[in-house]
Amino acid sequence: MTYDEVAERVRRTPGPVRIVGVDGCGGAGKTTFAARLSKAAGGCPVVHTDDFASHDEPLEWWPRLLAKVVEPLLRNELATFHPYDWVARRFSDDTITVEPADIVVVEGVGATRAAWRDRLALRIWVETPRDLRLERGIDRDGEDLREFWHWWMAQEDDYVAAEHPDQHADLVVDGNPTTPHDPDTELVAVSFSPGC
């Protein structure tokens, strides 16, 4: 399946702003997937849940994203928020503004939460083996954060157990595909609902 085909599927859903949720656990490949989908959708905006999560609220940040991003965009209004600075351990004074667009991608752990799941034009889950996700996380963040990664993964496990986002996905993507494909333009689907 191509990213162009996914973008076209989203465009067939009603609404001036169509929000796509790209969910999965840390290290699954969500950010890369979202960037490729954004490119296929003409450079559409991408909102990262990591800008809302924090050390104090790894997963209970969702009311802010709902109020600051999902609801305004679905009303065809500007979304504005202050992103979390993971190094300074506080929310930044900088403001991120997201213009309403034909397609907006929300990516990150919790991107397809039950609180707004039914308002999404497409729900995507990126499925990647746990050991590979941990390896990717340590490669990216460094060995010093291994303990943090184990803590983070436990928080994700709670989210997945409570909300089953993988089971509510319209499209489940292989985050570590062995099937030959062009990764820049094609994805490998594990499962998909009719119309995807």
Describe the structure.
The protein is of the alpha/beta class and 196 residues long. The protein is built from five helices and ten strands, in the order H-E-H-E-H-E-E-E-E-E-E-H-H-E-E. Strands 2-7-1-8-9-10 form a six-stranded mixed sheet, sandwiched between helices. Strands 3-6 form a two-stranded antiparallel ribbon. The model has no long low-confidence stretch (mean pLDDT 95).
Short description:
32% of the residues lie in helices and 19% in strands. By secondary structure, it is an alpha/beta fold.
Question: What's the topology here?
Answer:
Blueprint: H1 3-11, E1 18-23, H2 30-40, E2 46-48, H3 62-74, E3 79-81, E4 84-85, E5 90-91, E6 96-98, E7 103-107, E8 122-127, H4 130-141, H5 146-163, E9 171-174, E10 189-192
Parallel strand pairs: 1-7, 1-8, 2-7, 8-9
Antiparallel strand pairs: 3-6, 4-5, 9-10
Helix pairs in contact: 1-2, 4-5
